[in-house]
Design goal:
Blueprint lengths: L2 H30 L2 H5 L1 E5 L5 E4 L11 E4 L5 E5 L5 H34 L3 H45 L6 H46 L10
Antiparallel strand pairs: 1-2, 1-3, 3-4
């Protein structure tokens, strides 16, 4: 073989050997890469809005949304971005609303159970509320009687005070105190009566609501015979 051909042959042989050695080294490196790293590519968006990918996420981007890709570039999982303070507060607000709604539903079911266990017919409901209203009306009547007595006493004491004034005398302190005391008692009675009248109004509203719900639960068509 001619000398220059021999040199060419040796050069090509050396290059092939180097190429083979490089391939072996690369394959050895890939074989040594952990399976998790090789099959778990993470993608994020940098501060310039550019999408970047790699085996690890830079710390400054670790709290944002991260897409997890497999070795073929297919998304296999998503790590959602950490929520802001405002988002956490909104979540808490919505959770509170949901909890309150669940509580209302539970209370409504309990009221339905009590209603069905307490009454058999519409007449039972009416009798129950009639009795409650009668008790409150009785209290109102007693208070009204007390008010009439207080008014009579007040008139008598005021008349006594007027006599002192007509006589040009100073009205005694105890008489003035008695007048003030009677006026306070009358005012308290008026407030108490107004409160009881409010209770009667609520009882009537509750009666109508319970009657309506009882009919719904029993599948009874409404009538006007049970009006209070």
């Amino acid at each position: 073989m001619k000398p220059y051909l021999t040199r060419l042959h040796n050069t090509m042989k050396a290059r092939n050997l180097l190429s083979l050695a490089g391939s072996i080294i690369l394959l050895s490196y890939l074989a040594s890469v952990p399976a998790v790293m090789a099959g778990s590519i993470k993608c994020w968006t940098n501060k310039d809005g550019v999408r970047e990918c790699g085996y690890s996420v830079p710390p400054e981007y670790s709290q944002q949304r991260i897409d997890i890709m497999n070795e073929r570039g297919i998304k296999v999982d998503v790590k959602e971005a950490a929520k802001t303070k405002e988002q956490l507060e909104e979540d808490a607000r919505l959770a509170k609303i949901k909890q309150e709604e669940l509580q209302r539903q539970a209370e409504a079911r309990l009221r339905d159970t009590i209603l069905l266990n307490s009454f058999t017919t519409e007449r039972d409901i009416k009798i129950s509320y009639d009795d409650k209203i009668e008790v409150v009306n009785g209290i109102v009547e007693i208070t009204n009687s007390s008010t009439r007595i207080l008014q009579q006493k007040l008139q008598a004491v005021e008349k006594k005070a007027a006599n002192y004034e007509r006589a040009g005398e100073t009205t005694p302190e105890d008489v003035l105190n008695q007048i003030n005391s009677l006026k306070r008692q009358l005012k308290d009675n008026d407030k108490f009566i107004a409160q009881k009248e409010g209770e009667i109004k609520v009882l009537k509203q509750n009666y109508e609501a319970d009657l309506k719900r009882f009919r719904e639960l029993k599948g009874i068509k409404p009538t006007n015979s049970a009006k209070m």
